[in-house]
Amino acid sequence: MATTRPRVLQYGKMPLTQLDAELAQAYEVSILSEQPDPERFLAEHGGQFEYAVTSAAMGLPAGVVDALPNLKFVSSFGVGFDALDKDALLRRGARVGYTPGVLDDCVADLAFALLLDATRGLSESDRFVRRGDWSQSRFGIRTRASGKRLGILGMGRIGSTVARRASGFDMEVAYHNRRPVEGSPHQYLPSLLELARWADILVITAAGGEGTRHLVNAEVLAALGPQGFLVNVARGSVVDEAALADALENKRIAGAGLDVFEDEPRPLPALLALDNVVLAPHIASGTHETRRAMADLVLHNLQQFIATGRPAAEVPWSAAQ
C-alpha cells in the first residue's frame, strides 16, 4: 500500500534516540547510514526525497546533496553548519533549518565549567587526590576566576549568554566580532589580537567554517600571554590545535579548557599528555533538557517547512536565498 507520508532521508542516527523514533512515526524515513550500499541506494532512490535530516556533527556532503535532485529542505540538529556543504546546497536551492537559541544556556554553563576548571585546576586536583599525592605534598596554588577580564570571540546568542554569566563573577567583558553588536553594553575591540592582549581569559563562541579556521593561532596565543587562559566551546577548527599544544607545553599560556577539537573524536595526542588543559568530549549541549529542545526544533522546522515553505529557524546563508 502506497504511503501518503512525506519521504525523509535521514543521513544517520540522531544524537537523541527518541528523535529517530519520532521521525519514523511522522514520516516515511530511510536512514542512509543503515543501507548496505548507501551509494547504490542514493542512485536508485535519491530522486524520491524532498527532505533530509542530519546533525551538525554529521553534516551533509556534496555527494549526497548531488544525489538528491528534488531536495528542498534539510533539518539539522545543532547550531554548527560548517559540515553542511554550503555550495552544493545553494546550487540545489535547498533551504536549511537548524536549532539555535535552545542550547545557549547549557553551552554557556559548560564554558564556565571549563573556565573554572582551567583556572582553579579542578580536574588536575582530582587526579592529584586519586593518585594519593595529597599525603606526600600540597597541591599547587592556582588562579582566581572572579574579577578577571573576560574576552569573548563571537558575541552571538551563546557569547551574549556567556557574558551574562560573567556578571555573576564580577568580570569585565569585552568582545570581538566582524562588527560591533548594536546595543551591547560590552566593549568592542576591532581585532582579535587586541582582545587577546586585553583579556585574562579568552572564550571562543564563534561559528566554525573556512572564515574562522585557525583564527586563534600562535600569534593570538602569544598575545594572550603566559598568565592567560583559553576556553573553546565553539568549533575545534577555530583554533590551531598544534599551536595551542605548543603554547601550553611551553607555558606561553597558562591553561585551556576545550570541548571541541579539530579532528573529533581524536584530540591531538600532545594535548592528552598535558595537565594544564581540560578536555571534554563535545558535551556542551549534552543535557536532557537541551537535547529534547533541539529535537523538538528539528521536528518543528521540518513540519513548518512542509506546511509553509519556511522553517522556524534557518541558517543565515540559507535564509539569504
UniProtKB/TrEMBL annotation:
Keywords: NAD, Oxidoreductase. Pfam families: 2-Hacid_dh, 2-Hacid_dh_C. Residues 18-315 form the D-isomer specific 2-hydroxyacid dehydrogenase catalytic domain. Its EC number is 1.1.1.81. CDD domains: HPPR. Residues 112-284 form the D-isomer specific 2-hydroxyacid dehydrogenase NAD-binding domain. GO terms for molecular function: hydroxypyruvate reductase [NAD(P)H] activity. PANTHER family: 2-HYDROXYACID DEHYDROGENASE YGL185C-RELATED, 2-HYDROXYACID DEHYDROGENASE-RELATED. Belongs to the D-isomer specific 2-hydroxyacid dehydrogenase family. This is Glyoxylate/hydroxypyruvate reductase B. It comes from Comamonas brasiliensis. The gene is ghrB_3.
